[in-house]
Every structure is written in structure tokens, then in C-alpha cells.
Amino acid sequence: MTPEEQKLLRQAKSNLENIGLIMSGVNYVGDKLESTINYLPKTAQSKVSKIAQNVLLKVMKTNLLTMHKDKPFKKPKSSIYKTSVTASGIGLGFLGFVGFSADLLFTTKMMMRSILDIARSKGEDIHTTETQLECLTIFALGGTSKEDDSLETSYYAIRMGLRTAIDASSKYITENGLKTAINKLATSAPIMQLITKITTRFKITALEKFAAEGIPIAGAIGAGTLNLVFMNHFQKMAEAHFTIKQLERKYGEEQVKMHYKAIIEE
């Protein structure tokens, strides 16, 4: 591995495993976010989790429909992503669960488009089912908080935990065809297992977003800015993940994993 590649790997590891709150761009309100999440009624937390799961299902369906109709994946300018999620946050961020659900869905779809662009820039074929599923798992790379203290949060542990579910989902789609898979997403055991695994971590993102939009920081940074923070976060996760995947294609997964684990964080 060249010195430049080692530098890229070091940066990727730093981005993936030193996040703290997902809202790292506004971590000065971290204690307030944690406190607000803890005081959210269990029914509200459960509802946010359900919304997050439904959002992931809808994003997956949108992508598979695009593949099914053989439509090209168009690449909007980065400014369009950011302008769109900012507008969504401003327009929908303070309307309770209805506005929150619509905002989270739109913002997640835009983040997924950006993730696909990043994957493509790193040499991935985004027209394959495997890459589509791989892109979806970026939403499991949400960093750590008190909400997921019981989860294994290291990058390779998360990948390993998702690998079987990705393979099973890919096999299901291949064996049943895209059309059938699209129609039966919510009743497919392999696909729902993958979605559930991702939701376990993505719900932390959703809870932090919901909590942040409900406390006084709104006057300082605005709901639209919160969406930008999430966009930047998952772009960074995608950049790191697909940089590692690119190195793995060149050197093999075990070799890259060995170098990754040998890196001592400064």
C-alpha cells in the first residue's frame, strides 16, 4: 500500500470511528440532545423508530424501481442536494410527526442519491443490486451515542453484522426478480431482516434529529441546517466506506483490514 493510500485509509478510519454524536457539526448541544432523547416518551421513541424503518423501505423501493425501469441514475449538482434538504428542513421540520416523517423521507432520499454518486466515483457499479444494498447500509454508520452503548460500533464489526443480511437480500431479489421483490419488500424476510438491522442504528439519527428540532437550538442553527449536518455526515461515511472498498478491490479485504486495525489513532 502506497503512502498516499495509507493516508486515505487513516483518514477513512478516523471519520468512521471518531464521530461521537452524529450531530458532530453541532456537538456543543450534545448534552441537550442526549437529555431530550432520554425524556422523550417511549411511545414517541417507538414511533420515530417506525418512521425510520418506513423511510428506509421507501428509499430502497425507489432505488429498485429505478433499476427495474432501467432508468439512468442522473447526478444532480451537490448544491441541489444541499439546497433541497435545507428547504425541506425549513418547511417541514417543525410540524410534528407529520412534518418530521416527510422531511426525514425527503432528506434520506437526497442523502441516498449523494451516497450513490460517491460510490460511483469510487468505481462501484451502482446499477447492481449488491451496490444498491451496500449504499443503503451507509445509514447504519451513524456513530455512537448513549442510545447504542450496547451495540458493537466498530466499522468492521458493523460490516460483518450486515454481511449475511445483504447476501440474503441480494439472493432473494435475484431469485425472485426485481418486480416481485419491489412488490413484496415489506413481507420479504431477508429484506426486512436487513432493514431492521440498519434501522437499529439509523433510528439514532432519526431520534437525534427529532430531538434537535424540538429544543431551543432551532433559533441558532435552524432545522434546515440540521439537515445539512446529516447530509455532510453521511457523505463523509460514504466517502470513507467506499474508499476502503476501493482499496479492498486492489489489495484484498483481509490485507486492508489488517492495515486498518494496525492504525493507531492520534
TrEMBL record:
It comes from the Bacteria. Pfam families: EcsC. InterPro entries: EcsC. The chain crosses the membrane at residues 85-106. Keywords: Membrane, Transmembrane, Transmembrane helix. This is EcsC family protein.
